[in-house]
Design goal:
Radius of gyration: 21 Å
Low-confidence stretches: none
Helix content: 25-40%
Number of strands: 13
Shape: globular
Strand content: 15-25%
Number of helices: 11
Structural class: alpha/beta
Largest sheet: 8 strands, parallel, barrel
Mean pLDDT: 96
Order of helices and strands: EHEHEHEHHEEEEEHEHEHEHEHH
Strand order of the largest sheet: 1-2-3-4-9-10-11-13
């Protein structure tokens, strides 16, 4: 069985996607738009959705989508519309305090009843830094990666700072919590000094899964240190196998941008029409073709060692529904994808056990 996820980005990953006949550019900043997308993704029994985010507009061009909503808040708004699919919103950790995001993701885990995670992202942009004015940029990549590792460590400690049974709720004695089961995390490092504990009780999952997108060795090391799953961008089966071996011990998902149609020619024609309107480039492999041929490629990469795939729909909703109503049945017919959800939490869907609380049994 393969794991399958989709990466949601505005009107789609192609910059001209908002001009497609079935696009909804007038709805991009409305909850109903995002709700419709995640309900469709759950209809296809996908493991999770990621929601993109950034601290800058990304472009000064007026023929591209400008502006975005906060990914964590979007996930919290639409998660109650679903029952099974997981949510990994993007968090830009370079300028965001870990204490704030730890409680935001824990809150999402409550809202979704155990289906939250977070995709950690760094930024080296001086323009992004100017929004905060706290330090000079650029900063060397190794420093940004080290900071992100400490950020995840603080967040994970905060998630553990309440033991699972810290809440007593004893009306007779008037004790709501057992104070001995709340713990200072006392983290002091190069980038953060955080005492704790969190103000949010332990999330239903204990530790929501952490994901990283990695292209280079420094970020591979961050993933190995800090993440449960890592997104990579191979361009052939040999590279997929090499990345799976290098990142052994993690769930390794291959990213692919997809333009799908019932025939190869229809997919090529639609992609060409989009390209005529705007130049498209990607760090990931761009696949143009039928769901059946995409299934062939994904299964070859699975056999090379990848755990799953995060598909980036070129245009929404077209390529999302092609995934849920075309690719998923194709994989099911080949015995390679679930026919029903088999777990109620994101950790369960990914086959990750609930980790033990690091502070359980310790004195304050």
């Amino acid at each position: 069985m393969v794991h399958l996820a989709v990466a949601l980005e505005g009107a789609g990953w192609h910059p001209a996607a908002w001009r497609e006949p079935d696009a909804r550019p007038d709805a991009l900043f409305r909850p109903r738009y995002w709700g419709d997308l995640v309900v469709e993704a759950e209809r296809g029994l996908l493991d999770f959705v990621t929601i993109e985010d950034s601290l800058g507009p990304g472009t000064d061009r007026t023929d591209r989508v400008r502006g975005r909503l906060d990914a964590v808040l979007v996930a919290s708004r639409v998660a109650p519309l679903t029952r099974h699919i997981g949510f990994l919103p993007t968090a830009i950790v370079t300028h965001t305090e870990p204490f704030h995001l730890s409680k935001a993701i824990a809150t999402l885990d409550y809202v979704s009843q155990g289906r939250a995670g977070v995709r950690v992202r760094i930024t080296s942009s001086p323009e992004d830094a100017a929004h905060f004015g706290r330090r000079e940029f650029p900063v060397p990549l190794p420093d940004l990666v080290e900071e992100a590792g400490d950020w995840v460590e603080v967040v994970r400690r905060l998630w553990d700072s309440w033991e699972d049974d810290a809440e007593i709720r004893d009306v007779a004695t008037g004790r709501f919590i057992d104070r001995d089961k709340l713990h200072y995390i006392d983290f002091t490092g190069r980038f953060f000094s955080v005492k704790g504990p969190s103000i949010t009780p332990p999330a239903p999952e204990g530790q929501p899964p952490v994901a990283v997108l990695s292209h280079v060795a420094e970020v591979h090391r961050l993933a190995a240190r800090s993440a449960d799953l890592v997104f990579v961008t191979p361009h052939d089966v040999e590279e997929a196998g090499a990345l799976a071996r290098e990142l052994d011990g993690l769930l390794v998902f291959g990213d692919v941008v997809v333009f799908l149609d019932e025939t190869e020619q229809a997919a090529r024609d639609r992609k060409a029409r989009l390209d005529d309107r705007a130049e498209f480039t990607s760090d990931a492999l761009v696949f143009t073709g039928t769901p059946a041929r995409l299934a062939d490629q994904l299964l070859a990469w699975r056999d090379a060692g990848l755990s799953g795939f995060r598909l980036r729909p070129g245009a929404l909703p077209h390529d999302l529904t092609a995934i849920t109503r075309g690719l998923v049945p194709e994989l099911q017919q080949r015995g390679a994808f679930r026919r029903e959800y088999e777990a109620t939490t994101l950790r369960g869907l990914l086959g990750l056990e609930r980790p033990a609380n690091r502070y359980a049994g310790a004195t304050r």
